[in-house]
Amino acid sequence: xVNFIYDHSPIFLQNIFVTLKGIQIYxxxxxxxxxxxxxILKNTDEFELQRYRLKEFLNYVRYNSEYFALKLPQINExxxxxxxxxxxxxxxxxxxxxxxxxxTRKKDLILMETGGSTGKRLKIYTHYSDIxxxxxxxxxxxxxxxxxxxxxxxxxxxxxxxxxxxxxxxxWRHNYVLNQLLFSIFHAGTxxxxxxxxxxxxxxxxxxxxxxxxxxxxxxxxxxxxIELTFQPIAIFPTAETLTIExxxxxxxxxxxxxxxxxxxxxxxxxxxxxxxxxxxxCPATGxxxxxxxxxxxxxxxxxxxxxxxxxxxxxxxxxxVELIEPLPDDYKQTDIKIKRIxxxxxxxxxxxxxxxxYNINLASVSRQLGANIKESQxxxxxxxxxxxxxxxxxxKDKELIEKNxxxxxxxxxxxxxxxxxxxxxEIERTQGGKTRxxxxxxxxxx
Length: 447
Prior knowledge:
The chain has 447 residues and is an alpha/beta fold. The protein is 35% helix and 25% strand. α3 (32-43) packs across α8, α9 (193-203) packs across α10 and α10 crosses α11 (245-255). InterPro entries: ANL_N_sf, CapK_Type1_Caps_Biosynth.
């Protein structure tokens, strides 16, 4: 009934509904847990805090989760790190099959569903206290870059804000209590992106955050059409998708400010944030990080997340990978972890008969090397010897450049035995959560 009323209300009334929801969220997030976490973060060394929180978290979970009571060893200050290897991994299937035994509380549960990018959803429960602490860390991170709570903020996320029957080109709503402009990612196609940029110019946000593919599309429109912005954000904070070097450069050129990438997950994984040098730092106050080598400097992430006291993530195989600046020693410490870039899902790769694994970071630069003005790209593999390439381009001359250079550019990555099929599309298909995927590996599905 509430959704029906919202969908059939005028936009000004929908803004009021969004703001009323914002008031509810504000009260849930910005409470004593938030204030306490901010104070702790500002006055404590993060690595010292990590050691303390690891012991406290493991002991809390052992006494409050039926599932982990059978799996966690006794922990004390002397052995918590040594004992970590004795704890079995937690997988997504473990959570699906044992969620009722894993959770630590039965009351005041908040249901979160994740997994839209794969089509297989994962049910996770959280609690207001964990949400408040996570928001506190995000605000702490942003404040270090000059962005404070309450500043004008434009956000691009997966919320369904726009009714299906809407005819107007107003693809955003306002949360007045948080001074926030909320953009829909589901309408950010080529034909509509100019309206997004016009609204940005009117609203003049001091920060922008959200899905990088949409922020990048705005940046491309600004750069290609030499749009003069009437504002300059303090910083931009992409999240939820992989941010490539090319995307970052386009965004910073368009908005004339620094972009700080961040990694977490809907399940509640600990944070990894981009530093001023362009690399990435783990956030030890939010969790404990383990890395297992895949090949070269590519490592799988295994995380223990301190902000997951309801559905505890302990030695969780989240399915993401990172590229390190240099390989880790066997006896590495948390301070040794220096990340070059976030790869994302550890199956975000394609396969070559001749060259083995081709990671998405190696495909992100294809569009630039083709020499054409490519708006978006996607690489799909259903067969070992064939790659389907979906491209969004503006002009016929771009297609000529692509066809001229494609084989050479792709053979550098896959060798000479792979065939390529190019589809020119109006836009890249999005997942249920509104995200785009650069690579889709269907080899297991079709073989």
